[in-house]
């Protein structure tokens, strides 16, 4: 059985991240579980977390990570704590995307991480930094501003996110608050290529488009859109970033935006995280509203996986279909977060008829 | 009061050379590239001068490399018949580090012609030599000059009495430890590596024998279409330059003609994740054999040789800057490949089929991006199906106008494959990368091609239901079965289906599967995370529904179970069937399921030992 599991893992290794790879890894995990091979099951789950988190399957990642953590706590000496603690941050980066997880539980998770980091001698920078990120995810921007000020005063250690990642989150903060000049200033080292990593500048380029456009730098915005979109367009991990490109295109070039919507809608339909899905639907509705909706049908090619879309649909119908989905998701997030951030945000990008 | 003294940084040249050797350049042999580059620039400059001044247009560039002496007395000489350096040039380019011939306003400065940075490039020679001697005579001045530089940063310049030919000669004496780089075979190999496509002869002379090192003619670089009629020559070239025996290639050319190339089709399947290492020549000189971004991502079945004069290399010279120019070139080159494949589809389907078989993933990746390509190619793509691995055209024929059924995951496919196959039902496994995407796009390229996603529950629709009598007859047994599996959120159904050898079919939706794995994990994780998972369960549960265990009345064992009257017996048998189905499907069991299994196994042992009194 062990051989079969290793075979499956090898097969998975040859595939790019995505559903096919996950299916194989899950099969391997099931086999390992069924044969009681705990350590192997732990190893496979590490791969699942890695693949799932970066390909738009945060729920699968969360489940696999939970299993690992339980196993780790039973036999902490058998496993590598560094890898596990590092992965913990990925999970925290995604937990807010599920409106079903209450705020208190999210907070408990961050405290749990804090405790575990302290136990293994790491400092509190990641703790404050993730408080900052979570506050942003929850639309609590005043809180976020406070954590932004605290995390930066703590020295970086080997558990800290990389410089580029941290910087990109700061850009995101000013992007969310609408402080365009600040956002552009903070984005500079990223745009110049001095700070890069696996996700930067990918996630940053989409967040300078509207600020640049609003400041009259349409050409620069266009360049960054082209480069940024190329970096993310084949990667499910970046659905929110793609939504930001659509939001920009809604303003700058709605007709081109249709292509982007068409290309990614099937991805959004089959997405495990409500937050990214909501971003996408909202941006898409905002974009379609800017086009001539007067009775024209099939301006958007809907994916075959969408049963509802198999008949001819007018733009107006498409808008009417997706808008409530985005709005009810936003309401669910606001309920959990205890504010009206997402409802307001949707109100701004879609036009009220 | 305030007085500012101005100082200048003292640069330690020896230290800098060390940095060059150990960090900037990947191997000391790049000194060959640098001197070849200088020679090329000088020849280009002289040519351009010929176009403006009266110098004869018949000027032919030429580089000669000569090896003489042996051991530590080995000397390598590179001579070009380019423009040569005036005394002023020498001061400017050889004596100030960092000064590049690209700057300034004179002839040497025109942006489009030069690749080198004379001064810096020459420094790389200190990696293999403790003294660099440059003899030169400019076509403009006629004075013969000698420059001698040492790695400590000192140099001398003097006018020579003798009259040199126009051009530049560089003498490098072998530095102890660098003998390897002076071996004739090594020098020849390096000259070819960097300069194979140089448009003038590069000659190597050793021990009185002289031969040409680079390719004798590169006229096809102007018009890559010519390559088509020189097949074996091109494939040989592929072997010499790329180290691989290719069987086929596609000529590449952008509309402007400033970028061209040969796209060799890899004769073997290649991992999707493997690096795309293309070999790129910038203005005839090798820039990189590791350039990844010159072709579109889907072209991973291609290893190409590209020449260009319009792209800008990064400082490491292994990649090109991602700019609009590169974007344009990449998509034009991609179009060449795509066009050729489309052309093959029309005129040489056998050739195309061969390549599709080898590089199907790559072609599918392209098809997902490009509807036109999908329209032409889809019929040759193969898919795993209950009828075996078949080309789509065949599957379409089999479907006979009905929609093509597919599952979107391997899991779902596996759940129903036995049953679907036994019923001669055509189902495609769309669980592999790109397959579902392609299947879902089919109706856009041809409205007649309808596809329908199938879930395991859908398969059961084709099962034969029970007759009214059977329904009444088995009613009470079915209730017992339902009660037995209810705690597992599984319901039972009784049907007749093929194959008869399959007693039960367990089907579970993706959501229910996720729910299962959440529940199993809750048992294994910390209290905090099990709370979180419980919160998430609420959302998943809504859609998950029950799993279903279909009992096959055509199966003799099942038929016997249904004849039983003992409730305990029926319950235990149902539980065993359930657990068995889980094991067959590799679904790991949770605690209550394991308990279930233990209990029923014990029951059966008990009954078995009790001399069949319960049967």
UniProtKB/TrEMBL annotation, chain A:
Xref: InterPro entries: TPR-like_helical_dom_sf
Protein name, per record: Uncharacterized protein
Organism of origin: Paenibacillus terrae (strain HPL-003)
Native organism taxonomy: Bacteria, Bacillati, Bacillota, Bacilli, Bacillales
Automatic annotation (TrEMBL), chain B:
Gene3D superfamilies attached to this UniProt entry: 3.30.230.80, Histidine kinase-like ATPase, C-terminal domain
InterPro entries, sorted: HATPase_C_sf, Hsp90_fam, Hsp90_N, Ribosomal_Su5_D2-typ_SF
Residues binding ATP, per UniProt: 34, 38, 80, 168
A single MF term (Gene Ontology): ATP-dependent protein folding chaperone
UniProt xrefs under PANTHER family: HEAT SHOCK PROTEIN 90 FAMILY MEMBER (PTHR11528)
Entry similarity comment: Belongs to the heat shock protein 90 family.
Name the UniProt record assigns to this protein: HSP90 family protein
Organism of this sequence: Paenibacillus terrae (strain HPL-003)
